[in-house]
Protein: Ribokinase
Organism: Lacisediminihabitans changchengi
Amino acid sequence: GVTIVGSANIDIVYGVERIPGPGETLLASSAARYPGGKGLNQTVAAARAGAPTTFIGAVGHDEFGEELLATLTDDQIDTSLLRRSTRATGQAFIMVDANAENAIVVSPGANADVTALTDSDRACLQSTGVLLMQLEIPLDTVREAAAVAHAARATVMLNAAPAHALPAQLLADLDVLIVNEHEACLIGASDDLATASATLAALVPRVIVTLGAAGCALYEDGAEVGRVAAPRVAAVDTTGAGDTFCGAFAAAISDGAAYGDAAEFATHAAALSVQALGAVPSIPVRAAIEEARA
Ligand code: ADP
């Protein structure tokens, strides 16, 4: 199965003609509220892609927390390790413009309480096939979970988003690093994507750089080993595309798929997700991914 240690937020999404500048007020053309957070999105994506999935994260004792718990339960996700924090449930304020580009502000709230792994958390990480994490919870927790899972020989995956410098100890515990172009350049410390990607590929056995509508590039043992083209689709909202990719990829690997096949499965899942508004509502189920791939 797949275990995710990560964030959960309520996303408040406004459709706007363009992203407003400082001091500017715009009228939105639409307003909606969705479950979100990279951790939760990737958890839903892994579960819908067919993997038995466990989520380790935190929500508040509030209405938003109940909403997120219900979302997880609806997709048969194991929530027995979910923490209830005294802080408010995390919230993200998202604007999506006419070109499907977005601008986002996040209030972490309860996500700051995903700290100190319990014995039950450790037991879960020691028996999982795949551990998938992101960088929206405290970095120390990410580091600790990676170490526990790596020691137990789980496949440890990090989606290094939002971009942040990665400690050497964490890098040493990773089997797969997944980044978009922006994150690759920041963490790989170069404005040139090829240079940055090569830097990352020298640090982690497998690195995937997602390239938006161009698909993704796969690296293994320091060298680029292939590219997966994304199907041509009409994108309406790319929020959660990377999350869908990561969750579907983790599910495929947990199911025994080869590296390239898992990346292809994930590419089709992500392409489906950009064709509808919102992150969670647009995450496809396994049957839809397989149909798109056929
Ligand atoms: P992020 O969402 O993290 O910024 P990307 O923009 O690289 O990441 O998108 C992640 C994946 O989503 C891509 O590798 C691709 O498979 C898919 N994707 C994103 N945008 C499109 C698009 N316009 N058409 C088809 N697939 C897309």
Q: What stands out?
A: Residues 180, 210-213, 215-216, 230, 233, 235, 238, 241-242, 245, 267, 270-271, 274 surround adenosine-5'-diphosphate (CB under 6 Å). The chain has a mean pLDDT of 96.
